[in-house]
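Workshop exercise sheet. Pairs work together: one partner reads the sequence aloud, the other fills in the structure field after running the prediction. Swap roles for the next sheet.
Pair: D.N. / O.F.
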Amino acid sequence: MSTAVAPSIDRLLYTPEEAAEALAIGRSTLYELMATGALTYIKLGRCRRIRRADLERYVASLTPLPN
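Structure field:
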């Protein structure tokens, strides 16, 4: 019996939980970022989704702390 591995698909939309995992932050922190407008999201019906481009934009906007 062989087990085939499904091909990796680059996601365009992430659930808040998936986005939090991708950013290596807690789920509640991600919801706070969404509530303050620091991280934009879209609503599909009752579901919130975060675009990959919005995640990348948020990370690019972060400034490193000076040494």
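Discussion prompt: The chain has a mean pLDDT of 91. What would you look at next?
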